[in-house]
Structures are given as C-alpha cells and as structure tokens.
Specification:
Number of strands of chain B: 0
Helix content of chain A: 55-70%
Oligomer: heterodimer
Number of helices of chain A: 21
Structural class of chain B: mainly alpha
Distance between the termini of chain B: 51 Å
Largest sheet of chain B: none
Strand order of the largest sheet of chain A: 1-2
CATH superfamily of the largest domain in chain A: Cytochrome c oxidase-like, subunit I domain
CATH architecture of chain B: Up-down Bundle
Distance between the termini of chain A: 43 Å
Number of strands of chain A: 2
Radius of gyration of chain B: 20 Å
Largest sheet of chain A: 2 strands, antiparallel
CATH class of the largest domain in chain A: Mainly Alpha
Shape of chain B: elongated
Order of helices and strands of chain A: HHHHHHHHHHHHHHHHHHHHHEE
Largest interface: A-B, 56 and 55 residues
Number of helices of chain B: 7
Number of domains of chain A: 2
CATH topology of chain B: Four Helix Bundle (Hemerythrin (Met), subunit A)
Chain lengths: ~625, ~200
C-alpha cells in the first residue's frame, strides 16, 4: 500500500515554517546581490537585485519546506507520497506548508485579502493625488510609482483571487474528490504569492517603476532597479499560474467521482477548468518575455532595442499574448461563480447549461486571437486591424451567451434575495456596462480616440472590480459559511452590498465621461475644468474603500464576536460541497461518493439526491 | 532480483496516481511548449524584422556547429536511452543498468552546453541573434539541468520499497519530459546553428 509504505524513519529535520523561510531569505538576498555585483556585466546593480530576489525566494521556499521532497528523493530515502491529507485542526496548519486543499484555500484567501487591502490603499493615494489638477499633492515620479504598484498588485490579486481561495477549496469537494491531484504543486502555487507581493512592494525602496503593469520597452529597459521587482514578482505569479493550472486540470480530468460526468460538472468547476487552460498556456509566454527583459537589463542583450537588432514590439506582442487571455483568467471564474450561485437562489435549473459551457470555451478560445487590439495605436500593420477588431467583437457573442444563461435562469423565478444573490445581480449590472464599453474599445476608430484615456480605465475597472470583485464578494457570502463554519451577518451584508454598489458606480461611471473629455491615464496633471468631476470620483472612491472596510468588519464581527454557527447546508443547495458536514472533514468524504444526479435539478419534486455519500449528511433533493 | 521480489500489488490509489501523473506530465509539456514557442516567435520576429540590419552583424563569429551537434546528440541519447528502458520495464535489470548511463549522458550534455555558453565567441550586445541564442539556449539548459537533477533522484530511488519501484509509472512518465526537451534541443539546433 502506498500510504502505509510512506512511514519513514528518516526525514530532514529542518524546522519548516515561514519564519525559517524569512530567516534564510534575508542572507540569501544579500548573497545574491553580492554575486550579481561581482559578475554583473554592467554597473547599475540590476544583476545583483534580480539575483538577490531569486535567491531570497528560493531560500524562502526551502525554509517553508519545498526542498525536503527532492532532497529526500536524492538521498534515496522513503518519499512515497502521503496520498490523503490527515491533519490536525490547530491554527498552526495555516502557517506552514500544508498539503490539504482546504488549508491552502484559506491561506490564499487571507493572503489575497491582505494584498487587496494594500492595493486598495494604493488606489486611495492615487485618487487623493487627483484632488487637484496639478501635481501639488504627489510629484509626477511618485504618482507613476503609485500607479505601477497599484496596478501590478491588483493584477497579482485578480489572477488568483477566485481560483486560489475558492478553486482550491471547492473544486475537490464539488467533483467528489478527497484531495487535489498534486498537493505539493498546489502548495507551491500559493507559497510563491507572498514573496511576489513582498518583492513587488520592495520596488518602493528603488523608486518604483514607471511602466504601469504593461512593462513596455524601451521604458522598462531604462527604468531603475524597481523594474527588477516587476520582473521577478510577475515571474513568480507566472509560476503560480502554471502550477495551479496543471493541478486544477489534472484534478478535474482525473479525479471526478464515479457518476460525475462532464455534463454533471458544476458550472463553477467549468469556469475554473477554462481559466486553468488559459493560465497554463499564457503564463509561460509571459515568463519567456520576462526572461528576455531580465537579460536585456542585466547582460545587455538587445531583445527590445531596435538599434541593436531587437524590437520593442516584440515585448508588446509577447506581453499581450499573455495579457489578453489574462483578463479572461480574471473573469471566467467570476462567470462560474455567478452561474453557480444564481440557480441555487432562483430554485431553478441553470438555463442552458451546455450552452453556458460552450460560452466559457468560446471566450477562452477567442481570447487567443485578439491580443493585437492592444496595439491598434502602437504601429500595428493597418491591414491587420480589421481582423483583430472583428475577433475582439466576436468575443461579445460567447460572453453574451453566458449573460443570457444567467438572465434566463432568473426569468420568472421565485428568487430568494440573499446577500450572495444581490452581489450576483450587481455583477450583472456592472459587467453589462463594462462589456458594452469594451465593444466600443474593440472598434478601431473609437479605440484610436479613447486609447490611453480614462475611458479604457473605467472599462476595465467595470469588468474587473465591478465584475470579478463583486463575484468574489458573492462567493465570500455564499461559501464562507462552509469554509469557516460561521454565517456572515446578512444585515451588514445587505448594507455592504448597497454601499459598495452605489459607491462603485459613483466612482467609475464618471470616469467614462472624463475619458471622453480626453483625460489621460497615468498622468497626475489634468485639465482644471475636470476638477469637479475628479473630486466627485475621489470622494466616491473613499466611500468605496469604506465599503470594503465594512466587509472586513462584517467578517471579523461574524467570526469572532457573534459566532453564529453555520448549518451544513444553510442555503438548501443541491451541489456536492453542501452535502458534507461543516467543518469539512480532513478527507472530505468518508468514501468516494457516487454521483447520481446533476447539481441544478431544482423545482422537480421527484429529483434524485445529488449523490450517494455513504452515511454523511443527507443529500438535498430537488425541492 | 531483490527489487522485483518486493514490488507491491497495484491498488486503486496507485492506479489513480498513475493516471494523474500521466495527465500532469502532458499538461506540463503543453505549458513548456508555449514557453519555448514564445522564444521561437522571438527568433522569427527579430530575424524577419532585422532592425538596423543587426540580426547578425557582419563578422559575427557563429557558434561551432559540431560542438552544438555534440550537445544535441548527448541530449537525445539521454532521452532515448531512458525512454527505451522505461518502455521495457522500470522494475528490470536493464533499467537499473541504463538509467545511470542516461544520467551520465545528461550531465555531459549540460557540461558541454555550459562550456559552450562560457566561450561564445561573440558579445551579447552584438545584435538580435546573440540575444536569442543566449536566451533560448540558456532557458533550455536550465530546464534540461533540472530534468537531469530529477533523473538523478529517479536513479537514487531505485531501491526496494522506494519511489521508483513503488511508482514505476511516475518514472516512465518522466521519460516524456526528457524526450520533449531533446526535441526542443533539436529544433533549437536547426534554428540557431543551421538556418540562422
């Protein structure tokens, strides 16, 4: 037996935890800097800084425990995998390398929420700077640093904010698996995120980086050492995307319970599946581009220097080949959440389940053929413009299908207006505006006019914050009772929703107007005639930040002060994750369940229970 | 052989593990293919643009084709020897004998490639081609070195009740990674040494 054979007399006796990791990382950083400066080909310390970050990250991961397994293999010790996690329930499991997908999901959630707070504080600084039309509050150099840190931090967060916490926690439960396919890979996908965030923030000590999240060359070649934080931090996120993609796809393909056919797969799992394909294939291209940028900055190669045989368009092509699928990495799991939650509260089957799956795949497929619309004003060959305009506009079709599936599910339903459903409705409203404004930007003449203005900024905030973050909130209110065992206050939740919904629209809708009036992005100085509009937006942004503080207060209040225990299935939902006890047992299911019906068979009194669970909590019928 | 006599029975957990490892390897290779595709795109893009006539500047000392061929043959040898032995059976005497040979070939490929990169014959600032050569070859070398490191652990685990014996499917699936890297090495050789 594999599990029995795993008992070993010999194990590396390093105390593996994040503290060991930090203790090892600090000297490793200085060792890297020293080596880089010793052998670096130029005198601007980039080699040292990049090597320092790489060494520090490697040392941190070693300290956490990632080298134990390969070393024990190399020593010929017993390393047979412990296939099913069997961990204690102590709080300490959240602060060390864990192979339990539920622990990793919670680790992700806390980390991402802290990062969201930091990114949000950055946004508040940016909006405060824009209270005046000149640069009297924040000098231009500091302003562009704030833009860079806010944007890249938010990209890090939104890459993982749903797949990380909810994908890791829920996918095995939803498909009837007792673990993830590759728990070490899953853990790695999490443990590279904190170093990525720290390295990104370390850019502050080098004066930040001037490129925003796109890192365009040749500006990125000329930038100071803060750019090295961008390179290594983004590289680590690429590692997280690939390792998460391999793990999620292998789990969904290979670990579905008997009876969990592809047509019974919860739609959220389909969302994670399509997202994982995009992350798996797009992130390596980004990694290649980042290596090239690092080589240009350290060994003075010339990938992006036209005078020396390179091309700055090479960066733009490679970056956006990753970058546009990346925006669907943000939104596809959000679609999954919305389509997952709505049927449960509409008490109706998901309308057009198969069509919705086709829609998810349609978006994922088309996302590979649109990247050059980001280059419409950069010098793309004019003959290519119609193709990329058309392919971008085509994406609105599968997206529209997903939208209609959700609306069709709500049509004539007796809706249970819970807090999660309110956030789903908020998502639909916001994403409609974000999506329609995106169609304008896909159109060449409009894009040429509005590119680089606040119009495009408002567009992607409507899709990402109005879309993905609203879906995140829906997911938190819906699934945190299962994950924490405590119900969040619905009263505070409703106040939170309306506060956030109004403040969000009050913040970002006026920015469409600012964009049409030619207010440029990434510049702290603007036309004084727009000051009133900007002051309105800034005050609204403070309120928006306040709504997030209220959410944090609700979580703390509900978990630690009121402590209202959650029932195993407080929403009377059919899907599999709600059929197991709360808190979820270490091995999820007593035995691998047998799935006998789909998760959305609501409204049919004769619907079979979703699964034979062999003695766990009774499965919900179709009522 | 003692190793063979202690081989455990296949149970459902092992069968599941075999299926997952098989899926995981192909997924990883898909990701890695896109990584190298990014490099190959860069190669063709810069070569086609030839900005400032500086893809290959006049008088550039090209890398030695024969030397590159040696590295390539060593890499192919590593992959093919390992792959062929896993096709026979991981729990066989043949594997016990030839897997270390494969490891030695792999180490030799890394050493030769490392030596070549240390003695390039051209400066990194001398145009687009040197940039792509260093980046693409370096990326391949790092990955191949990592694969050889893993191969060392596979060899080290060839003992009774150890991983290579308990999970032969894992050792067998790993052969696809070596084969993939050898194929990438062959493409790189054609691009960088023969048609640049």
């Amino acid at each position: 037996m594999v599990a029995e054979a795993s008992v070993s007399e010999r194990r590396l006796s390093i105390p593996n935890n994040p503290i060991t990791g930090v203790v090892l990382a600090i000297p490793a950083y200085f060792a890297g800097v020293w080596l880089g400066n010793l052998f670096g080909l130029n005198d601007d310390q980039n080699t040292g800084v990049i090597l320092g970050y790489v060494f520090a990250t490697a040392a941190f991961l070693i300290g956490v425990g990632f080298l134990n397994y390969p070393l024990e293999r190399l020593f010929g010790w017993d390393v047979s995998p412990v296939s099913v996690p069997n961990e204690n329930r102590g709080i300490g499991r959240f602060f060390r390398l864990s192979l339990d997908h539920k622990v990793i999901g919670m680790q992700y959630l806390i980390t991402i929420l802290i990062m969201l707070l930091l990114g949000g504080i950055g946004a508040m600084f940016i909006r405060t700077s824009l209270l005046t039309p000149d640069s009297s509050i924040t000098p231009p150099g500091q302003y562009i640093m704030l833009i860079g840190l806010h944007s890249v931090m938010m990209i890090f967060i939104t890459s993982a904010v749903i797949v990380g916490p909810f994908g890791n926690y829920l996918v095995p439960l939803m498909i009837g698996a007792r673990r993830m396919a590759f728990p070490r890979l899953e853990a790695l996908s999490f443990w590279v995120v904190p170093p990525a965030a720290v390295i990104l923030l370390a850019a502050i000590f080098w004066g930040g980086f001037p490129t925003g999240w796109t890192g365009y060359a040749p500006l990125s070649e000329q930038a100071g050492q803060g750019m090295d934080s961008y390179i290594v931090g983004f590289g680590l996120i690429a590692v997280a995307l690939v390792s998460s993609g391999v793990n999620m796809l292998a789990t969904i393909i290979g670990m579905r319970a008997p009876g969990m056919t592809w047509t019974r797969l919860p739609i959220f799992v389909w969302g994670i599946f399509t997202t994982s394909i995009l992350g798996l294939l797009a992130a390596p291209v980004l990694a290649a581009a980042l290596v090239q940028l690092a080589l240009d900055r350290t060994t003075q190669t010339s990938f992006f220097l036209a005078a020396n045989g390179g091309s700055n368009y090479l960066w733009q092509n490679l970056f956006w080949f990753f970058g546009h699928p990346e925006v669907y990495i943000f939104i596809l799991p959000a679609f999954g959440i919305i389509m997952e939650i709505v049927p449960h509260f509409a008490r109706k089957p998901l309308w057009g389940y198969r069509t919705a799956v086709v829609g998810l795949f349609g978006v994922a497929l088309l996302s590979w053929f649109v990247w050059q619309h980001h280059l419409f004003v950069s010098g793309i060959a004019p003959v290519l413009r119609p193709f990329y305009m058309l392919s971008t506009e085509l994406i609105s079709i599968p997206t529209g299908i997903i939208f209609l599936v959700t609306l069709g599910t709500l049509w004539r339903a007796r809706v249970w207006f819970t807090v999660p459903l309110l956030f789903c409705l908020g998502f639909l409203f916001n994403f409609l505006i974000g999506g329609i404004s995106g169609v304008y930007l896909s159109d060449v003449p409009t894009d040429v006019t509005l590119h680089g203005s606040y119009f495009s900024m408002a567009h992607f905030h409507y899709t990402i914050m109005g879309g993905e973050i609203f879906a995140l909130m829906a997911a938190c209110y819906y699934w945190l009772p299962k994950m924490t065992g405590k119900m969040l206050s619905p009263t505070i939740g409703r106040i939170h929703f309306w506060w956030m919904f109004i403040a969000f629209n009050s913040t970002f809708f006026p920015l469409f107007i600012a964009g049409i009036l030619n207010m440029p992005r990434r510049v702290s100085v603007y036309n004084p005639a727009l000051q009133g509009l900007n002051d309105w937006v800034t005050i609204s942004a403070y309120f928006l930040f306040g709504s997030m503080v209220l959410f944090a207060a609700n979580v703390i209040y509900s978990l630690f002060f009121v402590s209202r225990p959650a029932l195993a299935n407080p929403w009377h939902a059919r899907s599999l994750e709600w059929q197991v006890p709360t808190p979820v047992p270490a091995r999820n299911f007593e035995r691998v369940p047998v799935i006998v019906a789909g998760p959305y068979d609501y409204g049919d009194p004769n619907a079979r229970p979703v699964a034979d669970l062999g003695g766990l909590v009774g499965a919900t019928g179709g009522g | 052989m003692a190793v063979r006599s202690q081989a455990p029975e296949v149970n459902p957990e092992v069968a599941l593990d075999a299926r997952l490892v098989g899926i995981g390897v192909w997924l990883f290779l898909a990701a890695d293919l896109f990584f190298f595709a990014g490099w190959w795109f860069s190669y063709f893009y810069l070569r086609a643009l030839n900005n400032n006539q500086a893809w290959i500047i006049q008088g550039l000392t090209r890398p030695n084709k024969a030397y590159g061929l040696v590295v390539l043959l060593l890499a192919i040898g590593t992959a093919v020897v390992y792959w062929a032995t896993t096709r026979v059976a991981v729990r066989s005497l043949l594997f016990q004998l030839l897997a270390p040979v494969s490891l030695v070939l792999g180490l030799a490929a890394c050493l030769f490639q490392g030596y070549e990169m240390w003695h390039l014959g051209f400066g990194l600032t001398q145009g687009g081609y040197p940039s792509v050569f260093v980046g693409l070859t370096g990326s391949w070398l790092i990955q191949f070195l990592g694969a050889v490191g893993w191969l060392a652990t596979v060899v080290a685990q060839y003992r009774p009740a150890r991983d290579t014996v308990l999970r032969p499917h894992s050792a067998a699936s790993f052969s696809w990674i070596l084969l993939f890297l050898a194929a990438v090495g062959a493409i790189n050789y054609i691009l960088l040494y023969l048609v640049a």
